[in-house]
Amino acid sequence: MVAGHARYVRYIVIAVFTFFVFYFVSSFKYDKVSLPSGFGAGGATTQLGSAGGNGRSEPQQQPIEKPIEEPIEEPKSSEPKKSTQNLANTPLAMTPNDPGWDTDLVGTAPGPRMNATFVTLARNSDVWDIARSIRQVEDRFNKRYNYDWVFLNNEPFDDTFKTVTTSLVSGKTHYGEIAKEHWSFPEWIDQDKAKKVREDMAERKIIYGDSVSYRHMCRFESGFFFRQPLMMNYEYYWRVEPSIELFCDLHYDPFRVMHEGGKKYSFVLSLYEYAETIKTLWDSTKKFMKNHPEHIAENNSLGFISDDGGETYNNCHFWSNFEVGSLNWLRSKAYIDFFESLDQDGGFFYERWGDAPVHSIAAGLMLNKSEIHFFNDIAYYHVPFTHCPTGEETRTRLRCHCNPKENFDWKGYSCTSKFFDVNGMTKPEGWENQKD
Ligand SMILES: Nc1nc2c(ncn2[C@@H]2O[C@H](COP(=O)(O)OP(=O)(O)OP(=O)(O)O)[C@@H](O)[C@H]2O)c(=O)[nH]1
Ligand SMILES: [Mg+2]
Questions:
Q1: Atom of ligand 1 nearest to the CA of 216
Q2: Which residues form ligand 1's pocket by a CB distance below 6 Å?
């Protein structure tokens, strides 16, 4: 009997205890974890993570509601925006022999930051291809530098694009929609003439020859990306396209190389343009040179783009799907005069002028030789060409994963050998073995 009572008491105690546990759990309130400022609802910018990429939240839980189209409030001075230290205190180490060369590449990179951003023009459908590019740029460089990334589109970016890209970029991300007048036919273009050209190029199977959007893209990259409101806050840009690869660790900040070296334009791959797409580009260029002799640099690189002293174009150009460059140069009167002169001539639509020859001719004529830089250390792929640094020692110390046999630099269709010659540069050891 006593044992029976004790059992009932035990049951009652357990029931009361269970009730209280249940009550406590069901009525417990927890504070929401706050997201980094600017990420999610109402933020003018979308931002995830801070220096070092810590403090991440799940981006999927907070859809980004509003792309920013307004410029960010920042001074437009030529001073590096994020500079925290005197440049002289943190030397720019570009080779293992330089003081400050970091072998381990761990943690946030010391030293100043330039007023610079990555920039990508993309469609929503490019999301997974640009995701691959970003991952590589972050792993090989930006996870230690946390530079911003501006995305531009002729249509609004969707939530998937913004969520995926924001989750991958270690700096701030900004999304801009391109104004109609930067992505349409100017009123002086004869639509019938342009249409006939496209039909003719389609018949002749010229790549992208029948595409209207490709032409808008080339005109936009030639004349407008650098003056989008979001880009006005920056001084340097690094252009990244979908589906590119980076094969080596980057031990130094290329934006700093540009800034400290007085560079305005840079490249990793160069080649000959498809002549059928730019039949009258050089005629237009010559007209510009005649009208604006004041814009032609004294110590220019005419020898890189012309083999006959400027009579004809040899079709050499820097491949513009990779570029690190000065936005202030592109926004200069010289460059704008050049673009507007070409734009008036209509070749973006009456032919299929690409932004690569346009940028390259501009750099070749209006910059001094010393202002154009070849980034040998940035190993890069965009279908179908690879830049893989020449020299086993370089590739090993940069932990490259490219196949040196695929290096395009010294092959017959590349113009990089000519660039070295024009600039009196010594080609790296072993270049002759990679000619074919
Ligand atoms: N928003 C937008 N971006 C575009 C459009 N067409 C091309 N792009 C972007 O412009 C850049 C160049 O276009 P691509 O199609 O890569 O041109 P390409 O490099 O000459 O050719 P591929 O060999 O096909 O890569 C890429 O970053 C594209 O994502 C378009 O119609 N709208
Ligand atoms: Mg491309």
A1: 31
A2: 120-123, 126, 153-154, 213, 217, 241-242, 321, 383
Q: How much distance in Å is there from the Cα of 42 to the middle of ligand 1?
A: 30
**323 is a catalytic site residue:** yes
pLDDT digits (tens, 9 = 90+) for 355-409: 999 999 999 999 999 999 999 999 999 999 999 999 999 999 999 999 999 999 9
Q: What is the pLDDT of residue 337?
A: 98
- What predicted TM-score, i.e. pTM, was given to this entire model? 0.83
Residue nearest to ligand 1 atom 3, measured at CA: 122
> Which pLDDT score is estimated for 354?
98
Residue closest to 92 by CA, chosen among 236, 256, 249: 256
- Give the pair of three-digit tokens for residue 91: 């030397």
Spatial strand order of the sheet with 380-382 comes to: 245-246, 380-382, 385-387
Q: Mind listing the pLDDT tens digit for each residue in 41-58? A: 222 233 332 333 333 333
Give 415-434 pLDDT, tens digit per residue.
Answer: 999 999 999 999 999 999 99
Residue closest via CA to ligand 1's atom 15 equals 214
Beta carbons of 177 and 155 less than 8 angstroms apart: yes
